[in-house]
Amino acid sequence: MTMVSKVASVLACLSVARALAGNQAQDAGRSVASAGRAACDCLEFAAVYYDNLASCGRARELYFLTKYGASEAYAPTEPIAGLPHQVCNNFFKNLKNNSCVNVDMFSFPSETSDASAGQSWCYVSNECLSLNGGTFATNTLGFAMGGWNNLQSTSNLSWKVCDSSSDSILKDKTMDELIAIGSESDVSMATLLRYAYPAVSITWGEAREFLETLNDADHWNDGLSLADNVNAIASPPATWGTRLPFVHTTLSGIVTSEQGTILDSPGHRDEFHVVVGREVWEVKRIDEGNMAYLAGKFYREFDVICRFGCSSTAREAPLDLLTQ
């Protein structure tokens, strides 16, 4: 047997072995659906990575980079200090939740017509056929060929675009619910909120007067609806330029929709404000943030504080009528 034929035989054996391994990975993906789940039910992110059913970055985890042309195959291999590593290792691999997350963590500029800007996604079993624009899985051999050789985003587990009528989506959660998810998974609240709520290119400095006026005791009227209280705020005159009327109109729509929305900070920093109806929350890094991060206590890195407009959700102790 010539050297060429020997090499060809070895390569053929390796191809068969890898194909078999790929089929095993696909079978593992299928078995996920058999544990009391429907084929298209979303899978818990942390469990998916722990069981090696997907590689972080090959679905939509890093879309905020790949949409600008970064390689979908190599983005997950950025240095340990890079944002891709922080998103994959510190957030997604710790997220013990199966709710759909935003496709785009930084949906800017908001004026673009990117169809993915408002979408949410999650991993699903390989048996799911309703991906709504997501991507079907491939086996290990196909993953290697598609990812490393052709620089395409391929995965050995399917992912789908979520539907709000049938899926649990983070953007539909309240702030208290998101805080509970962040605490349970020990993930950064700044990152969790970015992957939960949409963002708008309006800073806290621009929005502050509007939101403080809305919540001022002299303005707020309990006898009126939220929309009526918003409409009672005077619009800035057009002679002041176009920016202030834009901010006023945009904030009016955000508040009345009661959809949690991030007021983005300059440079898209991790410190920002969140508006949910008349509620205003501040996400602020603690003074010992570096220590929390280095210790792997990611949830403790940021405080999430309701500044105004929030009602207490704490349950009071029952009143003892016998001793009062």
**Major β-sheet, in short?**
5 strands, mixed
Round the mean pLDDT to the nearest integer and report it.
Answer: 82
The count of β-strands is 8
Give Rg in angstroms.
Answer: 24 Å
Shape: globular
Structural class: alpha+beta
What low-confidence regions span 5 or more consecutive residues with pLDDT below 50?
10-30
Q: Strands of the largest sheet, in order across it?
A: 4-5-6-7-8
Protein name: Phospholipase B-like
Keywords: Signal
Signal peptide: 1-19
Write a structural description.
Residues about 10-30 have low confidence and may be disordered. With about 325 residues, the chain is an alpha+beta fold. It is built from eleven helices and eight strands. About 35% of the residues are buried. The strands form two sheets. The protein has a five-stranded mixed β-sheet.
Write the layout of secondary structure elements.
Blueprint: H1 3-31, H2 45-50, H3 63-66, H4 83-91, E1 101-102, E2 120-124, H5 140-149, E3 158-161, H6 175-185, H7 189-194, E4 199-200, H8 204-215, H9 226-231, H10 243-257, E5 261-263, E6 272-276, E7 279-285, H11 289-294, E8 302-308
Parallel strand pairs: 4-5
Antiparallel strand pairs: 1-2, 2-3, 5-6, 6-7, 7-8
